[in-house]
Amino acid sequence: MKYFQFLILGFSLITSCKSSITSEELKDDEQYRPAFHFTPEKMWMNDPNGMVYFDGEYHLFYQHYPDSNVWGPMHWGHAVSTDLMHWEHLPIALYPDSLGYIFSGSAVIDWENTSGLGKGDKPPMVAVYTYHDPIREKDGENTYQTQAIAYSNDNGRSWTKYEGNPVLPNPGIQDFRDPKVIWHKKSGKWIMALAVADHISFYSSPDLKDWSFESDFGKDIGAHGGVWECPDLFPIIENIGEKWILLVSLTNGGPQGGSATQYFIGDFDGSVFTPEDTVTRWIDYGKDNYAGVTWSDGPFDDRSKLFIGWMSNWQYSQVVPTVTWRSAMTLPRTLSLFQFENKKFIRSVPTGDLNSITVGELARKADMTVTETDTVLKYPEGIGSFGLDMKCQSNVDFELVFSNDNEFLKVGFDENENMYYVDRTGLNNQDFSNLFSGIHNAPRLDDRKFFEIEIFVDRSSIEVFFDGGKTVVTDLYFSDNEFTTITVTGNDLLIEEIIAYELQSIWD
Ligand code: FRU
């Protein structure tokens, strides 16, 4: 069965089964809505789209179905932030029309007004997205995904779809979507990375309206357990010079099963992407970071990029136990490069103004040697959203356990395997999908003799940044009750400092 037919079938099954929302379900919604992660005000959300920085605002658009809590006719929802932490919900930016649903894509500021869509001196904000025509799909055609543009002359508050749409017609390939556009300085043209079934195609344009094919990449390299989606191509400049990163999400075949995002490191000459090796790399080793891409423009240079992902997995995203809203984004992250054993990798660190939501310390311990189990924190009221930093002077086995009376969420390191892990098998609420429970192993990409670990636990997610973000694990979890206890078990683990602190809601 084709991927989107599967989604649509899932959608109709779930909506037809859903009668009315019970008070028990509503209670769960409050319990699981993240305190410090972006969620839609109501109903369904998937991929982040059109992220662009302009006039002091970070724009976040997203795949949105405002009429149900499962996937359906896609719109672009919209929110803005000035600090990448607190978000203001804005009205829906793009609605489906006669050309189809509005699938994933990107947005750019057309500084030189190459498109001619600007007004006066103000450059236009141009969204480049995929139209998915459900009627042509139903009729069995394979040309139902095309690329289109829309523009805004008022900081993304109102949008006009370009009258010449689609700007890139379908050449007869069923999966042809998710344009990510950048301005390529050296060649002075716009470059679009497009997901085309099992590879990425690059197109170029002088004006965002006329697109010419440049090259294909990826048929015989990387992970291919599912269809390729949501590419992103961008440079990162480090001391050895410019390197180009190509992010590629795939529907299936991720390191923990289901959807995940891989990346390639190489060079891009304005036409062709050349990887520097054939290593398969993952942006995140958890099961819940998908379709992530980076912001266009911004108050930063090419040394790093700002990224956000959809915190779910297509294996179970439509049945996780929330009702009035569904899905959250990851914390925004800054991406940069590091080198380990002669290979380059991406480091991700949480970004945004975390200090602004830090309420106070819950516990602090210093200079302790853990040989059995030590309690870091016992908190009678339960804590739903908190951070934990641990610095160690040794790099031996450890396990941190977040628990309540009868549930456990574990984070640890296995010295023999040289692997970190997040274990979400000890939570009660996971019967909604038999693909949810699991222990997620992640390789250590560092050989220093100490650990530095940063953990963010929200009401239904955990993000762990090991070794300063060299290995990252992002996972959802659904507990019956909030955690009240944090313990650490170690094998002669020398802890320099461990601090747990409370994080407050970004919506208060
Ligand atoms: C990725 C994806 C994209 C598509 C969108 C549809 O999660 O499947 O390829 O544009 O979601 O909502």
Structure description:
With 508 residues, this protein is mostly beta strands. It folds into two domains: 22-32 and 45-350, Tachylectin-2, Chain A (5 Propeller); 354-503, Exo-inulinase, domain 1 (Jelly Rolls), CATH 2.60.120.560. The protein is built from three helices and 34 strands. The chain has helices at 3-17, 23-32, 134-138, and strands at 43-54, 57-65, 75-81, 88-94, 101-109, 125-132, 145-152, 160-161, 176-184, 189-196, 199-205, 212-217, 228-238, 241-250, 260-268, 273-275, 281-282, 290-294, 305-310, 325-326, 333-340, 343-350, 358-370, 373-383, 386-392, 398-403, 408-414, 419-423, 439-443, 452-458, 461-466, 471-476, 483-490, 493-503. It has a six-stranded antiparallel β-sheet, with no helix packed on it. The chain has a six-stranded antiparallel β-sheet with strand order 24-33-26-27-28-29, with no helix packed on it. The longest helix has 15 residues, at 3-17. It is globular and about 65 Å long. Mean pLDDT is 93; it is low at 1-19. The chain binds beta-D-fructofuranose. Beta-D-fructofuranose binds next to β1, β5, β9 and β13.
Count of structural domains: 2
**What are the low-pLDDT stretches, counting only 5+ consecutive residues below 50?**
1-19
The backbone outline, from C-alpha atoms, is globular
Q: Summarize the amount of helix as a percent range.
A: under 10%
Identify the bound ligands.
Answer: beta-D-fructofuranose
**What's the story with the biggest beta sheet?**
6 strands, antiparallel
Distance between the termini: 44 Å
Our estimate of the beta-strand percent is over 45%
Q: Please, what is the average pLDDT?
A: 93
